[in-house]
Amino acid sequence: MTTPVSELHVISHPLVQHKLTLMRQKDRSTSSFRRLLGEIAMLMAYEVTRDMPTQLIEIETPLAKMRSPVIEGRKTVFVAILRAGTGFLDGMLEVIPGARVGHVGLYRDPKTLVAVEYYFKMPHGMNERDAILLDPMLATGNSAVAAVDRLKETRPRSIRFVCLLAAPEGIKNFHTHHPDVPIYTASVDEKLNDHGYIVPGLGDAGDRIFGTK
User: Fold this and answer.
1) Higher pLDDT, 65 or 73
2) Mind listing the pLDDT tens digit for each residue in 101-142?
3) Which residue in 22, 25, 77, 210 has its CB near the most CB atoms, within 10 A?
4) Is residue 1 part of a domain?
5) Is 204 a catalytic residue?
6) Domain limits at 172?
7) Is 27 a residue of the active site?
8) CA-to-CA distance for 34 and 49, rounded, in angstroms?
9) 8 Å CB contact between 151 and 181
10) Among this protein's residues, is 112 annotated catalytic?
11) pTM, whole model, 2 decimals?
């Protein structure tokens, strides 16, 4: 049996691309950057959840009773890679407020660029849930690979990885380790620089979200 190749979904909707351009600008304020990220997260959520499972429920319209589909929101888990992944959460939860939330705490060793875990907390019953992993940047891919490694230990029903920007090096690394996990991104940028940052990119997403630099 051959190993499946990861799907790469580039969300090219004009609204997403417009807001991403604004976020890239180096003089964009922290509050504006944070607001734009939340808006993009909401827009991306529509594409990421396009094939999510639904169930029929009994409702009553002003005219008649009927059975109508709803998303199984309680079966969806948004997993934020700390700290920058939390910037995606609010927008995603606006679209699926019934989703549960998990967290993976990782930091990138500045010398080796290897991901180091310091926190991991998931909802119960992950084997019945669809996990959507969130991190704005897929740079080297080491953090995303490490997060999916841990997430797979909980045996979720499915996993999707969502990022704002991706570098070709990160995509290749992620595909090599997790060919079964689809990637959703707003842009595949040119490359990584010598410090492991995406170019042209938008700088350090965490620092720009929280105003820490």
Assistant:
1) 65
2) 999 998 777 777 677 888 999 999 999 999 999 999 999 999
3) 77
4) no
5) yes
6) 8-210
7) no
8) 22
9) no
10) yes
11) 0.88
